[in-house]
Amino acid sequence: IKKIGVMTSGGDAPGMNAAIRAVVRACAYYDIKCLGFYRGYQGIIENDYEEMSPRSVKNIINKGGTILKSARSKDFRTKEGRQKAYDNLKEAKVDALVLIGGDGTFTGGLIFSQEYDIPVVGIPGTIDNDIRGTQFTIGYDTALNTVVEAVDKIRDTASSHNRLFFIEVMGRDAGFIALNSGVGAGAEEILIPEENIGLDTLLESLKRSRRSGKTSSIVIVAEGDKTGENVFELAEEVGKRLPEYEAKVTVIGHLQRGGSPSCFDRVLASRLGVKAIEFLLDGKRDIMVGIENNIITASDIDAIKTGHHDINRELLRISDILSI
Ligand code: F6P
Fold it and tell me: For the chain, is the Cβ count within 10 Å smaller at the N or the C terminus?
């Protein structure tokens, strides 16, 4: 391997810059040239890249977003788009690609590496934490901290006004952000797609809280949860059925995607970035680097497509006990 390309694709996540830095500097350390492609696969199709040096990634370990920009490329879904991308990579003499992103990014990478002889290595970067083959994805820890900080603030006003707050958090169709931030912020209820408790159980539980002397409550709702049509309708329905509560809604939204990465995400990104290059040098291809029990692992990029890893059901039980 003499030259690699690196890119970020899909939704950005805090810590992606730390991962880019690690990849670029590991390349320099091992005497490999590194091209940074802008806007993910779209940048490869449009030949939009820059040669990266250790100095081109200075002072970015602490920055949110991604200096390489990100996109979800429609062109790359077409055979012509992928052909163009391959031609450009060959022309630039790129021997392998490092893909920083989520499952959409890896699905694209897998198809590409099956069609053309180009090794790919994935680095999991998404706030959703919904990737099989790694316990943690880059950006997840920072997003959790952002959510907990926001919920703490909402709790202040919720308790001053005796209100019931429904707070929607991201996660696509997974409940990792909701479950962990819910426990961390001491939410009374956590609604996640993996465990549909149903409206009746929710109402019962909120009534119980009221009877036990609680005057305000926080319900964390994962965006993929199906208890209501959406969080606004859910709050309206609960408000009608429990008129003693004044129900309000907050959607935290893209705030969860920004901000300076936590130390955990910076360290994770640094470890995964270096290992991605070392695995390539060891001859591994079409893998994703991940972390399991604090050890950096390589899993077949194909295998990670079998759905995300399980949520920690123990946390649901803990949440139930603690919201008494
Ligand atoms: O995958 C990251 C994520 O932030 C999800 O949590 C969310 O569903 C989605 O991306 C939002 O995408 P967009 O930024 O395109 O609205």
Answer: C
